[in-house]
Amino acid sequence: MTKSEGGGGEGAENELKPEREENENTTSNISKSTRPKTFVEVTIVGKDKEGIVADTTNYIFKQGGNIEKINQNVVKGLFGMHLEASFPAIDKVRMKSELDTLGNELKMEVKVHFHEENKVKNVAILVSKEDHCLLKILNSHIAGEIKCNISLIIGSDEKLKTVAESFEIPFFYVTHMEQSEAEREILKLIEKFDIDLIVLARYMRILTPNFVWRYPNRIINIHPSLLPAFPGAFAYVQAYERGAKIIGCTAHFVTEDLDQGPIIIQESFKVLQEDTLETIKVKGQLAEAFALFEAVKLFLEDKLEVNWGKVSFK
User: Fold this and answer.
1) How does pLDDT run across 214-257, given as a tens digit for each residue?
2) Where are the domains of the chain?
């Protein structure tokens, strides 16, 4: 018997070696493909000037990142850009420091947010006086119907502070005559708690573009009408006065255009002959709480995708 015919000779080893290498390479490729990616969101806001987009994207490419989305806007000389990129592996501390340096060089405000796949998301809830949407989310969280960290509740009024305390969630009262001043304080809190999702649970203040730009498709609002009809704060009154036969509410992502953001969930109910404005409001509140909860749940489960201003479900 020659070596090549035997099971343990040199020839047999040479014949088996390529197959072994192929198996090793396959295992390596599977490991790489299943390795969780880290997604980085970079938001840049400041006075418009040349070179901002080029400098930022060049930095991402040099770090081995892949740009997933990029959006920019200029309003009255104020530049806003939001960029999402994915990386196989990164040094978060170093990247944040380098992007801070880039922001100083550009004389722009740069915010960095890291999001790992399968990470439990941090949620901030903004409220005013009405508690129906807030209670639906908090009770659902306690019941295990949604998986997240409700990191804080921010109120433009102190009325719901006791609700937050009963659920042992930090409450911050933030109110200013100028919304821009309130937003500066809110932005600090959002960054401090590393928030992934902002929920407007009947928060009765209009967010400025300067705030909204920083969190595209990460702010969910509930509006008391079937958008795009009856915009504004008194939608149920408008619907009642005009004799609407079907009324509802809309959970949507917030954009700089009031009540015009991508629609996530809509709920409706029929107006009966015996209904009054008060009974319509009660029905509306139940629908609002359910629609907002469903929208938040879909977001937390990574089932929402926005393309060309329209929400699709994964």
Assistant:
1) 888 999 999 988 877 766 777 778 777 777 788 889 999 998 88
2) 38-116, 122-313
CA distance 48 to 45: 9
- Burial class of residue 25, CB neighbours in 10 A (0-12, 13-18, 19+): exposed
| Under 8 Å between Cβ of 211 and 183 | yes
d(CA 216, CA 19): 49
Alpha carbon 267 to chain centroid, angstroms: 21
Instruction: Respond yes or no: is residue 259 known to be catalytic.
Output: yes
What is d(CA 255, CA 163) in angstroms, rounded to the nearest whole number? 29
3-state secondary structure 256-308: CCCCCCCEEEEEEEECCCCCCHHHHHHHHHHHHHHHHHHHHHHHHCCCEEEEC
For residue range 82-126, list pLDDT tens digits in order.
Answer: 899 999 888 889 999 999 999 999 899 898 888 776 779 999 999
**Of the residues 131, 259, 275, 302, which is catalytic?**
259
Residues 6+ apart with CB under 8 A from 278: none
Q: Walk across the sheet containing 38-47 and list its strands.
A: 66-75, 78-87, 38-47, 109-116
> Which residues does 74 contact at the CB level (< 8 Å), separation at least 6?
48, 80
- Token pair for 22: 């192929």
The model's pTM: 0.79
Edge-to-edge order in the sheet of strand 171-173:
171-173, 149-155, 122-127, 197-200, 219-223, 246-253, 263-270
Q: Tell me the CATH number for domain 122-313.
A: 3.40.50.170
Strands, E, within 3-118: which ranges?
Answer: 38-47, 66-75, 78-87, 109-116
Answer positive or negative: Cα dihedral of 10, 15, 18, 19: negative
35 exposure class (CB count in 10 Å sphere: 0-12, 13-18, 19+) = exposed
Comparing 38-116 with 122-313, is the CATH topology the same? no
Supply the CATH classification number for the domain 38-116.
3.30.70.260
Question: Rounded to an integer, what distance in angstroms lies between the CA atom of residue 206 and that of residue 213?
Answer: 14
